[in-house]
Automatic annotation (TrEMBL), chains A, B:
PROSITE patterns, sorted: ACT (PS51671), ASPARTOKINASE (PS00324)
Highest classification ranks of the organism: Bacteria, Bacillati, Bacillota, Clostridia, Lachnospirales
Enzymatic reactions: L-aspartate + ATP = 4-phospho-L-aspartate + ADP
Entry-linked Gene3D superfamilies: Acetylglutamate kinase-like, VC0802-like
Entry annotated with the keyword Isomerase: no
Designated name of the protein: Aspartokinase
EC number in record: 2.7.2.4
Pfam family membership, one: ACT_9
Length: 403, 403
């Protein structure tokens, strides 16, 4: 007998028919002899509707009261889902965050799970019940309801899987799993059977929002085996684990792009110690995240500092840098929104330095110019012109995954 | 400084504008130097909508899961109300049933409050906060959410007023208070400044659903001063208390009618000990409530037993009695739906036997026939033909309250 934690997102529980479908998936796992804990998000647009209601009354409502409001969304989902399972004749109970012992810190709206008192859940499992738990929420030491912020329900599921020692944490969503590239955009994109935690983390930062980073980090920390799969098709999905099986010829798992970035260049910065520090600490203090950084070695007349930021942060970053021009003593600021980042991710590339060369060759053959390059142990990102991004992804994908 | 508990029903908090209005009423009381605890129902049709959602999924959902679902309605109300008060710049916090320490028995769907742990509410009041509490709900010893059934929010408010030692429990609703008769139907009907708990209880059983009996019984038991008033007009309402001031000439407080009743007559029941017992225990076992009972002293050939039931129970009652005809040995069953009950209620009538005579005289003068009569210490009810009911109420009201 295995213990399985299943998580269902908002689209999977959006209406009565879908809730019944989720109830079938849950009871199928139960009938197969497993203990099942299901973690549910709020139905469809419920959370957005509640946020809209709150805005109407008070656009600056406290996060404490927002959490009080938003946490009702999952409570509705879990009770309705339990009713659907009752109708099928299986023993079931729904639990809120506080009932299931999810204790968080006191940061309303973006709380972190501190511990999970599993007593109640285990008691219900021992009574052979299916347990349906609200995702996204917990309770702090003051007995105030808290929510976990973005990706909260995934995090709830992984946390429960970790403390309960679950054999598998299945994340049911509206996609079939993790792909070698975006299947809507890239010809020949294939679903991966397995990816590593680290690959998943790199992919998430590239905008492939299949799983939220917090949940993957937690899964990696506690070695929780995850599976991403569709609640609609019932096909096997993609397993996320410490070591992933991969076809021999492919050292990378996926190609992705991010178009919502902008490049900033500071030309003619004094070639002194501490100039980079000044630039990047200024931006960090003002919550501007910097991605790829490229800095030449410089010469007597000065050096150039190039970096990318999210497109939405470009205006703010430019203003900050212009304000501090005298302090930073650069001669010219250049910005460029017509860029995109294309990345390949793969745990296999650590031991295969040829990956970068293959990538550069693919782009060269396609006649695509590379602006900047950044590498980590399992990721290579290149900056290309925005107009070339889709072609770049296809070219790279063809080279690595082509038949 | 006084402590005031205010309760607002579903229509009072139905939308953003009304919630803002409620926030103003609450903060006005706070600004006047009072400690304020407000108890809120779910918004408008929220509860009905949730029940409909549940029915769609499982018409026979367990009451445990129904409570889980329905309790979200008040949680939404209180958080939105707290946000409205935050927007006005006052310190406020919303609390669910379990957060505010409302402990109930384990009867889901119709729970009774066993105790209230006031620690949290008092701590928030001591921090000068306005406290907004969900009505209608609590938590049982298993940490399951329970709801209190019909009239639950009134009951929550009175229970909190009792344990907190509140100086006043205001029940805000969509009517101005308790009237001498239904103001939409009876010319000259006036709002009463005060009524006694007992009068209020008799009025509630007559279908004047201003306050639910449970809350009034609780208020009487713990001597909680109540006031029924409108959340829309801001006028003073009707106080409900142990002893009510009343104009000298009027021994009664109110005239009311109930048209949804039916009369059943068992003709020719054997004149033996135990026959009434058999009839009424049969009905009680089958959840049929009997109201007025009239039984002649009987003679050798047998006796007649007349009584009234709610119109909706007539079919069930008749079937039960027909099934048991051999056992009960009556000769004929007669039923009549064309009847209505008209009642006068007044604590003053205990010491004024003339009230009954005045009532009978008023009906005689109006040419209205009386079918049956039933009296309690503070109520006289007569059964009249349904077609005469409105005229009977007006005639009685004119006689007791006419100028």
């Amino acid at each position: 007998m295995s213990l399985i934690v299943q998580k269902f997102g908002g689209t999977s529980v959006a209406d009565t028919e879908r809730l019944r479908n989720v109830a079938r998936i849950i009871t199928d796992a139960y009938k197969a002899g497993n203990q099942v804990v299901a973690v549910l998000s709020a139905q469809g647009d419920t959370t957005d509707d509640l946020i809209e209601k709150a805005r109407e009354i008070n656009p600056e409502a406290s996060s404490r009261e927002m959490d009080m409001l938003l946490s009702t969304g999952e409570q509705i989902s879990v009770s309705l889902c339990a009713m659907a399972i009752e109708a099928m004749g299986y023993p079931v109970i729904s639990l809120t965050g506080w009932q299931s012992g999810v204790i968080t810190n006191t940061v309303s709206g973006n709380a972190r799970i501190k511990k999970v008192d599993t007593e109640r859940i285990e008691a219900e499992l021992n009574q052979k019940k299916i347990v349906i738990v609200t995702g996204f929420q917990g309770v702090d030491r003051n007995h105030d309801i808290t929510t976990l912020g973005r990706g909260g329900s995934d995090t709830s599921a992984v946390a429960l899987a970790a403390v309960l020692g679950a054999d598998l944490c299945q994340i049911y969503t509206d996609v079939e799993g993790v792909y070698t590239a975006d299947p809507r955009k890239v010809t020949g994109a294939r679903k991966l059977d397995e990816v590593t935690y680290n690959e998943m983390l790199e992919l998430a930062t590239l905008g492939a929002q299949v799983l939220h980073n917090r949940s993957v980090e937690l899964a990696r920390k506690y070695n929780v085996k995850m599976e991403v799969l569709s609640s609609f098709t019932g096909h096997p999905g993609t397993k996320v684990k410490g070591v992933a099986k991969r076809m021999e010829r492919s050292y990378i798992s996926s190609v992705a792009k991010d178009k919502d970035i902008a490049r900033i260049a500071l030309i003619g910065v004094p070639n002194e110690i501490g100039t980079s520090f000044k630039v990047f600490s200024l931006l960090a203090r003002n919550q501007v995240n910097v991605d790829i950084i490229l800095q030449g070695i410089g010469h007597e007349e000065g050096k150039d500092i190039c970096f990318t930021v999210a497109e939405k942060d470009l205006k703010k970053a430019s203003e900050l840098l212009i304000e501090q021009k005298e302090e930073l003593r650069y001669s010219r600021l250049e910005t460029n929104c017509d860029v995109a980042k294309v990345s390949v991710v793969g745990a296999g590339m650590i031991n295969n330095p040829g990956v970068a060369a293959t990538l550069f060759e693919a782009l060269y053959d396609a006649g695509i110019n590379i602006n900047m390059i950044s590498t980590s142990e399992i990721k290579i990102s290149v900056l290309v012109d925005k107009k070339d991004a889709d072609q770049a992804v296809q070219a790279i994908h063809d080279r690595f995954f082509g038949m």
